[in-house]
Structures are given as structure tokens and as C-alpha cells.
Structure prediction request, 160 residues.
Amino acid sequence: MIEIARHLRETVDRALPLLNQVSEKEASLKPSFNKWSQKEILGHLIDSAGNNQQKFIRLMETDNLRFTSYSQDFWVSAQRYNYAKWKDLIKLWEYFNDHLAHIIEFVMPDKLANQIYIDNLGPYTLEFIMKDYVEHMKHHLKQLLPGSGIESKFENIYNS
Ligand code: NI
Prediction:
């Protein structure tokens, strides 16, 4: 898991300078009315961080967790990410991920096989959920920062 934590930190470090190059105005632009702006994509990644902190810790608490998915578009629009300051979103995303990398690094090894169901999907192990969190992030960073060379390695459940 030390590897996964390091991979998460490296992914964030790689994205940060590129995110900081995007202007406030550019970050707010919606490609079309129903597509997310860069602020909204980063907002979705903040929601994913919050949602996954819940999954990680609850899954250390119990070995058979029933979890529900959340409506991602509603979360993004309800929080008005497009009216937030771009630099603040970047900082929140950075620090939240510092903490998640810390959680992943120090996860109790005997909890890694604990299982979660998300709605009717699963079971997934805690180890899978932690790896999938990083892959989901890379999937969206690829959209956010085309040409950054960030690639998503494997299929994820897109519910992160
Ligand atoms: Ni997503």
C-alpha cells in the first residue's frame, strides 16, 4: 500500500503545476451546458475524496459494508463549484489527497480484504477500493489536463 500512496502523491504532484497554469476564466468554461467545466471536474474529484475517506474508514471498521452511490451531477451543481475560486479548489484537492495518501500508507494490513457492496455492485475489497480511487482520479485528470501524459491503468467502477 506504500506503493499506492506514493503513486497517489506522484499523481497529485504531477498535476499541480499544470492545474495552476489554468486561468480562473478558463477553468470556469463549460464545453456545453451539460458538460463539466475544469472547476466542476476538480470539484467532482473533491467529492470523490470525501466519499472515499468514508469508504476507507468505514471499511476498516467492518468487514462487510453496504454503501450507496451518490448522484455526481447533483453534488457538483449543488455545491456551485463553478462559482468557487480555482486556486481554493486546487488547495482543497491537494490537501485532501495528502491526507488520503496518509490513510492509504498506514492502513491496517489485516483490513485490506474487507468487503464493500456499492448499491448492488460488489463485493470489492478495501485494497481494490484504494487502488480504484487513484485510477478514477487519473481518469478525470486525463480529461482535465489533456497532454499531461497522465493515463488511467485499469477499468474502474466509475462510482468513486
Ligand atoms: Ni468520476
